[in-house]
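F.,

This is the one I mentioned.
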């Protein structure tokens, strides 16, 4: 069976100019199967599984103090609460219908904000704010207002800053969206996953197409600058034809961005997934067919492929940034923001400050107990070595620009790139033969085909991911 990414269909909508949408060769099923292996998503390098408990509050405090407030920050706030359990979910969440549980958590968040602002030396400028979860819209309008007031008191939200929030369509209506807009949010991300009623029932997340469509219309009327939709392929009862219908319905709604993730069934790690009947999961061949069909359909509808799971309309800032070679990547995925430090607030949130990572306590009890002692709730983290920093630069160049220039890496890290990465360059040879990369005398260039396998290319340079045993904790890369 041969699978080919198609160009814009006759009469199709706008098409991205970021790079050719048609590869110079068909993608056969064998190539897809060969690279359908476990691996990281590379929202960071090293990945979070490498964090150690020796790196805690004192180390994070020192990193914050050394950083100061001169450069803009990205801020992430984790709201862990959800009213209902989605069976596929692997996020850190707390399922409850008791909304009064939010108040103590919001109070603890303010203590953490105080400690962070004090360590930074005052209110730091913020160019990007993201509320994730869980379901941030579990909070009431009054609670969301209080949270945004607390953030503005401790950070300087810059004019033109990206203020985004993840929205569970089942928890909002047009009036709630209006309140989010009044609070300053200019970007929304709707969790959709699939529009097929049987699939929704199988994963315990029922939200009709009509209700999501109405919310998206309301959001546009309210002037939100960007609307994103999250999808998952590989869920129980999904078939290539049923997922193709969902893709067509999403394309008709015309979100500015689409994130399309592969479902990773890991019930031994994520307890909610034990409620999914494994026999109802689509076979590997069908799952890959969903991926190939969705990519072809979205390209045909004029979406640009940004890289690893992400699509955007050609005039979206994300697509523009890719064309201009200005993409960045952080714990929220691809971003147009410069490669700035990230402060993570809330239970399990991860910060990146300079050459360090720090992750907060993963349980509400541990998080709250630490803050009651007015200590940062960091439970583990990592101080990057020189090799980590070098490999992070290489992997991010490949994932964001699709090109690695040896000269720029050599100048920044004072290494002989061909010599330092001799083993890795040898391992790239088969990928070059498969048409995924072009090996130039002083550079590595992803091909249009290679963009769809960028994680496989990045893994070649991952020192921690070379043994099969180290990959078992990750999901499949396709």
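My design for it:
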């Amino acid at each position: 069976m041969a699978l080919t990414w198609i160009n814009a269909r006759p009469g199709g909508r706008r098409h991205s100019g970021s790079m050719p949408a048609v590869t110079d060769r068909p993608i056969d099923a064998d190539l897809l199967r060969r690279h359908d292996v476990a691996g990281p998503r590379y929202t960071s390098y090293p990945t979070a599984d490498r964090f150690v408990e020796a790196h805690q509050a004192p180390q994070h405090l020192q990193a914050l103090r050394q950083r100061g407030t001169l450069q803009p920050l990205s801020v992430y706030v984790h709201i862990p609460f959800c009213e209902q359990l989605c069976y596929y979910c692997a996020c850190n969440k707390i399922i409850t219908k008791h909304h009064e549980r939010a108040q103590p958590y919001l109070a603890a968040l303010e203590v953490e904000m105080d400690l962070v602002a004090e360590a930074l030396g005052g209110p730091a400028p913020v160019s990007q704010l993201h509320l994730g979860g869980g379901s941030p819209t579990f909070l009431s309008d009054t609670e969301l207002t209080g949270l945004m007031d607390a953030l503005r008191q401790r950070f300087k939200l810059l004019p033109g800053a990206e203020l985004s929030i993840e929205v569970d369509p089942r928890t909002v209506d047009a009036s709630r969206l209006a309140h989010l807009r009044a609070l300053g949010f200019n970007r929304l991300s709707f969790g959709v996953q699939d529009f097929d009623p049987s699939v929704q029932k199988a994963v315990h997340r029922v939200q009709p197409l009509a209700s999501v469509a109405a919310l998206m219309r309301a959001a546009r009327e309210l002037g939100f600058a960007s609307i994103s939709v999250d999808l998952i392929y590989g869920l129980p009862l999904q078939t290539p034809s049923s997922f193709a219908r969902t893709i067509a319905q999403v394309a008709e709604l015309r979100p500015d961005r689409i994130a399309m993730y592969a479902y990773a069934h890991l019930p031994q790690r994520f307890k909610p997934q034990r409620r999914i009947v494994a026999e109802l999961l689509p076979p590997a061949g069908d799952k890959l067919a969903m991926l190939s069909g969705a990519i072809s359909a979205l390209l045909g509808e004029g979406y640009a492929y940004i890289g690893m799971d992400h699509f955007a309309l050609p005039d979206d800032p994300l697509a523009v940034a890719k064309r201009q070679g200005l993409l960045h990547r952080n714990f929220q995925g691809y971003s147009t923001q410069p490669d700035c430090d990230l402060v993570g607030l809330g239970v399990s949130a991860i910060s990146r400050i300079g050459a360090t990572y720090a992750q907060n306590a993963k349980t509400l009890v541990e998080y709250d107990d630490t803050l009651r002692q007015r200590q940062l709730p960091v439970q583990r983290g990592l101080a990057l070595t020189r090799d980590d920093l070098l490999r992070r630069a290489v992997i991010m160049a490949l994932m964001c620009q699709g090109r690695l220039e040896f000269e720029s890496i050599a100048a920044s890290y004072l290494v002989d790139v061909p010599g330092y990465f001799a083993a890795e360059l040898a391992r790239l040879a088969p990928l070059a033969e498969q048409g995924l990369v072009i090996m130039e005398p002083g550079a590595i260039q992803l091909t249009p085909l290679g963009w769809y396998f960028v994680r496989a290319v990045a893994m070649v340079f991952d020192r921690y991911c070379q043994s099969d045993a180290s990959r078992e904790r990750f999901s499949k890369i396709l």
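The CA atoms of residues 356 and 383 lie 4 Å apart.

Talk soon.
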